[in-house]
Write a structure and sequence with these properties.
- By secondary structure, the chain is α/β, with parallel strands linked by helices.
- Helices cover about 35% and strands about 20% of the residues.
- The chain is built from 9 helices and 7 strands.
- β2, α4 and β3 form a beta-alpha-beta unit.
- The longest helix is centred in the N-terminal third of the chain and has 15 residues.
Length: about 240
């Protein structure tokens, strides 16, 4: 990710509608899992640490981040143990196994996504869970993806196949950010047509609009993960190590 984006993100993660809505949905999903009382939780690629407080409600948190700019921002939050690391070959914390690994909008940044998933699956406890979010639909590729150094966007089938081939059993695979999908998709397509070279995605909207968008996005938590919405800007999956027969 562009170093400037980390600074921008750090200033928005606690108040921008996209981050607030996503955390609300993730909190509901994670709360539905059968985690032990003192769950060991790893966030792989924590960025500037905006998810750490939410994750800490479910157990003890470890986090890793490779960016020299983002790492101290995450550590400054004073939540859990945050160390330098990189997927797939430099996962810190020794041989620690985790009950929950969160990989939140990280996989699309990696050159070798399967190798990263294979490495993380080795760090999951036998009854552990991987919670992953990625951007959906290759046709939705836009300036936002370029500015954030994405390598790809995923179809539902691609993500399912990737998780299974990485030795994971998939329990949940759903679209989300669906209620706002028509608006977001329309804006992205218009930007393509007019060749707009400035993304508005991570700019803070007016307070009233930010509250409205947060409420609309967060409302999807009432459906996810029980119901699979037919489309969305992003995909969310929950997987565990596949049981050997």
């Amino acid at each position: 990710m562009d170093p400037k984006a980390y600074k921008q993100m750090a200033g928005l993660e606690d108040r921008h509608w996209w981050f607030l809505g996503r955390r609300h949905i993730l909190s509901r999903v994670i709360g539905s899992l059968s985690l032990p009382p003192s769950a060991r939780i790893l966030e792989a690629g924590c960025g500037s640490g905006g998810n750490l407080e939410m994750l800490s409600r479910f157990g003890k948190v470890w986090a890793m981040e490779k960016s020299e700019m983002a790492l101290p921002l995450a550590q400054a939050r004073g939540i859990g143990i945050v160390a330098e690391g990189e997927l797939p070959h430099r996962i810190p914390f020794g041989s620690q196994q985790f009950d929950l690994i969160a990989l939140l909008d990280v996989l699309e940044h990696l050159e070798n996504d399967k190798e990263a998933l294979l490495a993380l699956s080795q760090r999951l406890a036998l009854s552990g869970y991987l919670v992953i979010t990625v951007p959906a639909y290759p046709w939705l590729w836009s300036l936002h993806d370029e500015l954030n150094h994405h390598k790809r966007r995923y179809t539902r089938g691609q993500l399912l196949s990737l998780l299974k081939s990485s030795g994971l059993e998939v329990y949940t695979l759903v679209f989300f950010n669906s209620f706002l999908f028509p608006v977001i998709a329309g804006i992205r397509l218009i930007q393509k047509v007019i060749c707009l070279r400035e993304s508005q995605d991570l700019k803070m909207p007016p307070l009233w609009l930010n509250r409205l968008l947060t409420g609309i996005f967060a409302a999807e938590a009432c459906l996810i993960p029980k119901f699979s919405l037919p489309f969305g800007v992003s995909l969310l999956a929950v997987a565990s190590p596949a049981r050997k027969s």
